[in-house]
Design goal:
Blueprint: H1 6-9, E1 13-21, E2 37-44, E3 51-54, E4 58-67, E5 83-95, E6 97-99, E7 102-109, E8 114-123, E9 131-132, E10 135-136, H2 148-157, H3 159-174, H4 180-194, E11 197-201, E12 207-213, E13 218-219, H5 222-227, H6 229-235, H7 237-246, E14 251-253, H8 255-258, E15 266-268, E16 273-274, E17 277-278
Parallel strand pairs: 9-17
Antiparallel strand pairs: 1-8, 2-7, 3-4, 4-5, 5-8, 6-7, 9-10, 11-12, 12-13, 14-15, 16-17
Helix pairs in contact: 6-7
Length: about 280
């Protein structure tokens, strides 16, 4: 993430890296192995319904992703079977040798040596998923990319830049005097927020930003986003401004709570919608 840089921060790519190193000395009472230790370091993905096909410098992925549709009142019945959407994604192998399920690299290490890396870029380009007031809305990143191929090409070309930006952001978060426990909590909080954000383009040209309340999939619940105000105001105030513009569309007449005493007043809804539906 690069705060206030919309294009960079919405690129649909996860970078995944693994490395191997050998201890400088023996572990506890274990007698050290003499000479080099050889092996294979690998990263692989898999799961039921996930199809992988090695193609070029990576693998093509296809799978069916489940999603739940609320009823006319916006309620979720978790006993109703989910719907499915077909997705095509891509694993670019940035370091290592392509395998049927990922990538690998061989190593031979003396004590204290650091081995090679295996690195993947998991690239996505999904069709419109979120509906806002009954209209399907493409993801914001489709403004900068026309296809999955373009995303994969960007991921390979800009891997170092993405790593540097990630390291800078991590260092910024860790620059506090409250200790490692607080820093770890901030890291976990940021990642859980990030994977629950939705940023799409509406058919009328307006942009839409909302955030799932992760445990129940409600969009931009007022009480939750209210407590995150300092985060937005510190790093990206325009995101909060978008929500402030959106919440009034979900206002309700005060008499629904207060009867005649509430006539002429309004109150905000708890949220903007649920699952992949806002409205």
């Amino acid at each position: 993430m690069r705060p206030r840089d919309v294009f960079f921060s919405t690129v649909p790519v996860y970078y995944i890296r693994a490395n191997v190193s050998r201890l400088e000395k023996s572990f506890r009472w274990q007698k050290p192995v003499e000479g080099p230790v050889e092996g294979i370091l690998f990263l692989q993905v898999g799961g039921e319904g996930l199809n992988l096909v090695p193609v070029g410098e990576g693998l093509d992925l296809s799978f069916e992703a489940p999603y739940t549709v609320p009823d006319e009142m916006g309620r979720i019945d978790r006993h109703v079977p989910p719907h499915f959407i077909s997705l095509q994604e891509r694993l670019e192998v940035l370091q290592g040798e392509v395998t049927p399920h990922g990538a690998k690299v061989s190593f031979s290490l003396e004590m204290g040596q650091v081995g090679p890396d295996v690195e993947l870029a998991w690239c996505a380009y999904a069709p419109p998923i979120l509906q806002v007031f009954g209209q399907s809305c493409p993801f914001r990143y489709t403004q900068g990319f026309a296809s999955l191929k373009e995303v994969a090409s960007w991921a390979r070309e800009h891997a170092q830049e993405a790593e540097e930006e990630g390291r800078f952001f991590d260092e910024s978060i860790a620059d506090n005097s409250l200790g490692s426990t607080f820093t770890h909590l901030l890291g976990q909080t940021f990642h859980s927020w990030l994977i629950n954000t939705w940023w799409v383009k509406r058919p009328n040209g307006a942009e839409w930003f909302s955030v799932w309340e992760g445990s129940c999939y409600y969009h931009s619940t007022v009480d939750v986003e209210f407590t995150q105000g300092p985060f937005y105001l510190t790093l990206w105030p325009e995101l909060l401004a978008m929500e402030l513009d959106e919440w009034p569309d979900f206002a309700k007449p005060g008499e629904r709570c207060l009867g005649e005493r509430g006539r002429g007043t309004l109150f905000l809804s708890h949220d903007m919608g649920s699952m992949a539906f806002c409205g």
